[in-house]
Amino acid sequence: MLTKLESDVQEILLTEKEIAEKVKELGEKITEDYRDRELVVVGVLKGAFLFLSDLIRHIKLPLSVDFVAISSYGDYTETTGVVKIIKDLDESIEGRHILIVEDIVDTGLTLDYLLRIIRARKPASVRVCALLDKPTRRRVEVDIHYKGFEIPDKFVVGYGLDFNQKYRNLPFVGVLKPDIYAGK
Ligand code: 5GP
Fold this sequence. Notes:
Helix content is about 25%, strand content about 35%. The chain has helices spanning about 5, 15-35, 50-55, 110-120, 180; strands spanning about 10-15, 40-45, 65-75, 80-85, 95-105, 125-135, 145-150, 155, 175.
């Protein structure tokens, strides 16, 4: 039986199984690439929390986890390009290997801003791992070293991604029915 949350979804873009397989693959690749090194995995809140927690269980290396939270000013589907850090890292990252974990890269503005801040703190290296990429919407070029899936220009929810703070707990990634937005 469909739950209320599930019935708000018009189309499932990525199933739970597809996501799990991809996350495992990404974790194994990261493990191989960073062999003999120690990582600081930086999750971008809130959207990346679920992806990060699944991903690190496939990274067989010593690592620590830290989080940043970034706010973008704009309505629910459009960012204005104005971003700021609302929760900074707890640890110093100087001389360390940083893996930024993002849920989705859309215009690229959030990641571009975060990369500038992180690089200014002189880490040994920085790479980005993003579950989803919407390349058609890009306004700034950002290098996504580990990419899960490219998706079309649609507003998606589930697997950590929200609409008005809801739907993060859906185990798949899907597109909401238009009347959900209309009711906003
Ligand atoms: P960017 O700065 O690349 O435009 O946007 C990145 C952030 O916008 C993501 O971390 C995410 O919070 C939000 N975002 C972009 N596209 C979507 C989407 O399709 N669904 C949801 N729920 N959030 C999105």
